[in-house]
Amino acid sequence: MNITLRVWRQKGRDDEGRMVTYKVEDVSPDMSFLEMLDVLNEKLQLAGEEPVAFDHDCREGICGACGVVIDGVAHGPENTTTCQLHMRSFSDGDVITVEPWRAKAFPVVRDLVVDRGAFDRVIQAGGYISAPTGTAPDAHATPVPKADADRAFDAATCIGCGACVAACPNASGMLFTAAKVTHLGSLPQGQPERAARVVKMVNQHDEEDFGGCTNIGECAAVCPKGIPLDTISQLNRDLLGALSSGEL
């Protein structure tokens, strides 16, 4: 395959960016999208040019570091992470546009790399449980109904890639926040701090300049781990309950 790439190039956070066109030849359909970018970077380095900066780590669809917008869709045309997207999803002669996540809360660091530290700060605000130190409790000491365990596991699959933010017209991070709230709020260990957790995390979400959620659903449509949209409903119920209880 021979393809044409239109790639966003930006030297730094305060620099003006632009789209740059590159030709990539002899692309194997079995290459992952990131492997294709590696081939492009090898070509650029041999020509004495600056390679394209992009995030990646495990390349196994687990860490969520590899997020880019491909032809206007977060992670590209398949419902998976960018590292698990293969070039067989494209055709010979295609022109492919590659951009970083675009959100005020995710400033561009360089080229396709964005700073997703806002997600870390949302977690730090309340995405945890406080447990006393001491001997670990016996397994199954606290029974958890299967429906609750399944709900918690489904929410816990969120890898924090940020595709939900990139896809949302409002650049909202509510699906990510809701996944973390629902995960812990579905388990007995998460109940003592449930009300305080949702208030703190939503407040931090807003302080990070994420947009508001208007239930458009684009976030769930592109989520590579299939986090359901109704986790946001769970967050809203928890938040209204916390605010109306008068305990905070």
How would you describe this structure to a colleague?
The longest helix has 16 residues. The mean pLDDT is 95. It contains 8 helices and 7 strands; from the N terminus they run ββαβββββααααααα. The protein is an alpha+beta fold and 248 residues long. Strand 6 and strand 7 form a beta hairpin. The strands form 2 sheets. The chain has a 5-stranded mixed sheet. Strands 6-7 form a two-stranded antiparallel ribbon. It is elongated. It starts with a strand and ends with a helix. It catalyses: a quinone + succinate = fumarate + a quinol. Belongs to the succinate dehydrogenase/fumarate reductase iron-sulfur protein family. Its cofactor is [3Fe-4S] cluster; [2Fe-2S] cluster; [4Fe-4S] cluster. Keywords: 2Fe-2S, 3Fe-4S, 4Fe-4S, Iron, Iron-sulfur, Metal-binding, Oxidoreductase, Tricarboxylic acid cycle. Its EC number is 1.3.5.1.
Please supply descriptive tags for the structure shown above.
elongated; five-stranded mixed sheet; alpha+beta; 7 strands; 248 residues; two-stranded antiparallel ribbon
Q: How are the elements arranged and paired?
A:
Elements: E1 3-9, E2 18-24, H1 33-46, E3 69-70, E4 73-74, E5 95-99, E6 108-110, E7 113-114, H2 117-126, H3 146-156, H4 163-167, H5 174-185, H6 194-207, H7 218-222, H8 230-245
Parallel strand pairs: 1-5
Antiparallel strand pairs: 1-2, 3-4, 3-5, 6-7
Helix pairs in contact: 2-6, 3-5, 5-6, 5-8, 6-8
N- and C-termini, Cα separation: 59 Å
Order of helices and strands: EEHEEEEEHHHHHHH
Count of beta strands = 7
Kindly report the spatial arrangement of strands forming the biggest sheet: 2-1-5-3-4
Multimer state: single chain
- The gross shape turns out to be elongated
Identify low-pLDDT runs. none
Into which percentage range does the β-strand content fall?
A: 5-15%
Major β-sheet, in short?
5 strands, mixed
Task: Please state the structural category.
Answer: alpha+beta
Number of helices: 8
Indicate the mean pLDDT. 95
Give the helix level as a range of percent.
25-40%
Q: What is the C-alpha radius of gyration, as a whole number of Å?
A: 20 Å
